[in-house]
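anyone seen this seq b4? input:
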Amino acid sequence: MSRQRIFIVAEIGINHNGNYEYAKKLIKIAKEAGCDAVKFQKRTIDKVYTKAELDKYRESPWGTTNRQQKEGLEFGEKEYGVINAYCKMLEIPWLASAWDLGSQEFLKQYDLKYNKISSPMLTHIKLLEVVAQEGKYTFISTGMSTMEEIQRAVEVFNSYSCPFELMHCNSQYPMPPELANLNCIKTLRDTFKCKVGYSGHEVGLITSVAAVVLGATSIERHITLNRSMYGSDQGSSIEPQGLRKLVEYIREVEASFGSGSKIITEAEEQGKAKLRREYDY
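predicted toks r here
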């Protein structure tokens, strides 16, 4: 039985550095590479972070506090309006992981096809309930989570009959390949009887391709214009050439899966006619 096409998500996240022109460049790169969707992140800064955290010293292009850095990276209605229009023009879906209830409400205005639960939000039960009530296909990342926590999230989505796909993930940035634990893809699939993708934070491409071989139904990787740019996620991201290679490798691997039935190809039949015979030696 042939497998479904792997759904490839290019995670732009906050790698746009608060500049929607950078975001547009990354969207175009993802589209041209053959990705199936691009993803962003949405936060209400004062809800997600405490005042004490926001007041901490942090040098960035926007100032010297955490608040200035967080606000500098955050897109609002103007920027997401540009993103929404640009994605429609290029005919590539976009989605975003909301980090709070207000952000999920904000995203509803764009009538997106997909939702995303980020690993840190997997235990935010109220957010899970709000997302599940929308009934949209939802990707659920499982980094930093126990099986019991994942079970609770699955129960929420099942209770609302909301279609979902778990994504195996290690939330370390960057993640050493030896910590990928890709065999957990099968564990999650067997335990929760659902599709399981892979959200990777490693440097390089091999681990993500291996995840496809092991049954991942979707792949999500952060992308960047240049890994040397400012930002905490840039170093764990793929540059344009790497993204093109990743998509190429994934499509080549999935094309190699076949039906699973043992068949003899036409070329093999020709070789068989030459090489098979009644043996008397």
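The first helix runs from residue 20 to 33. Residues 269 and 275 are 10 Å apart (CA to CA). kinda curious what u guys think
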